[in-house]
Design goal:
Helix content: 25-40%
Structural class: alpha+beta
Order of helices and strands: EHEHEHEEEEHEHHEHEHHEEEHEHEHH
CATH superfamily of the largest domain: Endonuclease Chain A
Shape: globular
Strand order of the largest sheet: 8-14-13-12-9-10-11-15
Largest sheet: 8 strands, mixed
Strand content: 15-25%
CATH architecture of the largest domain: 2-Layer Sandwich
Distance between the termini: 35 Å
Number of helices: 13
Oligomer: single chain
CATH class of the largest domain: Alpha Beta
CATH topology of the largest domain: Endonuclease, Chain A
Number of domains: 2
Radius of gyration: 20 Å
Length: about 375
């Protein structure tokens, strides 16, 4: 596998399906929850107590009431102002185990501020898993009920489900959840009968609790970028690539590789948005093509190289994802899936406007100053 930095860590016998935005991902996730027979593990940076969150809450409660073990883990900062105590208590009273990752109150056990649980995982009966960029809330639900944010998620069956289950377990224990090691033995042992599943998948990061996994995705990106010979297509919502990644972009362009990046034209995190735009001129000068997604918020985190290598997960290309947060990402070494991802990238380009260097240089001074200042704070964003 020439594009994979750790080929020995690839897990064979998987089936992976791309799910575009909440319109496709939410129905599949809810269907899996409602079919659960043994356990449901849900982990989300944001779990909102809105109409979408309540739909998930009802499905989880229904399963818990028939004896399915249900565990829910959400992040304190991500869900601040969106998750309510009443909403969480309703789940607990129904028999669901609920934990919050790193409460921001210093007087509470296991509190924390800088390290956040940005992972998005749903694992059902240790046989099917979902991961990607989608949180649980109306922002990601299709209009008119939600805001229709654009995002990418995936559904996975096969051996890699075991790894995703272990990642959930580590975060759960870190948040003070009760151990459940006896449930891990059967995780991901097989794919559903009748399914063809040959896709090799690698978990590019584990949990960011220790140095051994902290830079897995960064290394995976750099290695794959070095192998690129034709195309690098990236979609990233919070795009502040460090000097090492920018160096690989430059080298790729010099080799004749077309490098294209889709970023949002608007953002829910203003400082990150302006810091990202400060880098546009440097990237455009080196030959990277930048496209801004129009009309709605773009929240996806994905990449495709040469239609051979693909990644999808919760990782943004910024310092917070690589150094501070808990993140999970899949690297897929499969031409068919990479082709599907690249075709989706092509469709996404139809919703974008390309940023041109000469036009970019003519933007107002006030905007440049704001971007320069935001970039100075990039290490803390």
């Amino acid at each position: 596998m020439p594009y994979v930095h750790r080929p020995e860590a690839l897990r064979g016998s998987n089936q992976i399906k791309l799910l575009v935005s909440g319109a496709n991902a939410y129905p599949a996730m809810l269907e899996a929850i409602r079919a659960a027979q043994e356990r449901v593990h849900l982990e989300s940076y944001i779990f909102a107590a809105d109409e979408t969150g309540k739909e998930f809450q009802r499905a989880l409660i229904e399963r818990a009431q028939v004896g399915v073990r249900v565990r829910v883990l959400y992040d304190a900062v991500g869900s601040m102002g969106q998750m309510t105590d009443e909403f969480a208590v309703e789940m607990e009273q129904a028999g669901i185990e609920v934990r919050v990752f790193h409460p921001i109150a210093p007087w509470r056990a296991r509190w924390g501020l800088n390290q956040r649980d940005h992972q998005k995982l749903l694992i059902v009966d240790s046989r099917i898993a979902f991961t990607g960029g989608l949180n649980i809330g109306n922002d990601y639900a299709p209009k008119p009920r939600g805001q229709g944010w654009y995002d990418l998620h995936c559904q996975v069956e096969g051996t890699v489900v075991r790894d995703l289950a272990m990642i959930f377990r580590r975060a759960w224990l870190r948040a003070g959840g009760r151990p459940f090691s006896e449930e891990m033995a059967r995780a991901g042992d097989s794919v559903m009968p009748g399914r063809i599943a040959t896709t090799p998948v690698l978990i590019a990061t584990a949990d960011n609790f220790g140095l051994d996994h902290r830079l897995d995705m960064h290394a995976a990106y750099r290695f794959a970028l070095r192998q690129a010979s034709q195309s690098i297509d990236l979609t990233n919502a919070y795009f502040i690539p460090d000097i090492l990644l920018r160096r690989e972009f430059r080298r790729a362009v010099r080799r004749g590789v077309e490098v294209r990046v889709i970023v949002p034209s608007e953002s829910d995190v203003g400082l990150v948005y302006h810091a990202s735009r400060h880098l546009y001129a440097r990237l455009l000068k080196m030959g990277v093509r930048i496209f801004e997604f129009q009309d709605r918020m773009m929240h996806a985190k994905a990449g495709v190289i040469d239609r051979e290598w693909a990644t999808i997960g919760s990782f943004n290309l910024d310092r917070r994802s690589f150094v501070h947060n808990l993140e999970v990402g899949l690297v897929v070494a499969d031409r068919e899936f990479a082709g599907i991802m690249d075709d989706q990238f092509g469709r996404d380009l139809q919703h974008c406007k390309e940023v041109k260097l000469d036009q970019w240089r003519s933007r107002p001074f006030a905007r440049r100053a704001k971007e320069w200042l935001a970039f100075r704070f990039r290490w803390w964003l």
